[in-house]
Target: ABC transporter permease
Amino acid sequence: MSVISVMLRKEFRQFFHNAFLPRLCVMFPIMIMLLMPLVANMEVKHVGVVVVDNDHSQLSRRMMSDINASEYLSLYATASGYEDALDMVERGKADVILEIPYGFARSLDVGSPETINISANSVNATKGAMGLQYVQQIVASELARMSVGMPEAKVRFSTLNLFNPTLDYKHFMIPALMIMLIVMLCGFLPALNIVGEKEVGTIEQINVSPISQLTFTLGKILPYWIIGFIVLTISIVIAWLVYGLTPAGSLITIYTATALFIIVMSSMAVVFANFSQNMQQVMFVMFFFVMVFILMSGLMTPVQSMPSWAQAVTYCIPPRYYVDIMRATYLRGASIADQTFSFSMLGLYALLFTAVAIFTYKKQN
Model:
């Protein structure tokens, strides 16, 4: 135990000797948590709409007023014809064209069927589809307002958005950012630390010392428990103070999962560092795996939306289980007992990568 304590003191002295790393571990989560939830937003807002009003009726004016008052739409301009409106879309000034035909309101009054044209710039498919949907909702709302004298519907719907009542995308994004911080800091830093010692030659002093493979590996992994917990705590506090988001579940569940995941990432970093001779090698390897983790763990896109073969591959990606735990605990209030499978898989990967890290460390070149 005394040997491990010596190793830990050595690691922390080395960590604080580099003035940049302590600042990075504090400022990085602060900047990410303050800025990214505001800019990395998948909600589609401020879709520019150009209206071709051939009707010039009270109904068409109400539609334009509703578009301008919408949080998601903005009335960019009214055009005299479809060609003028299309030119605005092609120049990137607007995203959706609403063309109201001549005599539209009068035709509705007499019960004559009419067609209203809505065109969207679908270069960005998500923005185009959502813009169409928003404009359709406004048109449908105005048409429903005109339906005076119609028999009242016998069925009414009561809707409820579970676990995110306000549909605020930041609630989905903030746990993902916490996971990314743990992946980046607890994945890259241990690998860069070991390879840095190889490049300057200080690891040779460890190679000739009576330190076992287990002690060396634990000495490289355990400091990142503390660093990871500090980063997570900073992120949770900022999420509470700035965005008003607090975990619906227990902090014990979150920190237990984080402890296992830090072991997974830091021991994986030790494995890669054991096979790397310089910074370039380990940086490319870590960058490759981090990109795979971000894209295939369900961090940004749902696993259920992936092809069946990709869904099968995600079971081999440890961050998938940490993503499931964090979102379920933060938003749904799930406990450890509710997530036995994910915790078991994280624990299994932690043991596996720690064992590989121990056996791949060679004291003699």
Remarks:
- Confidence is low (pLDDT under 50) at residues 150-158.
- The chain has 14 helices and four strands.
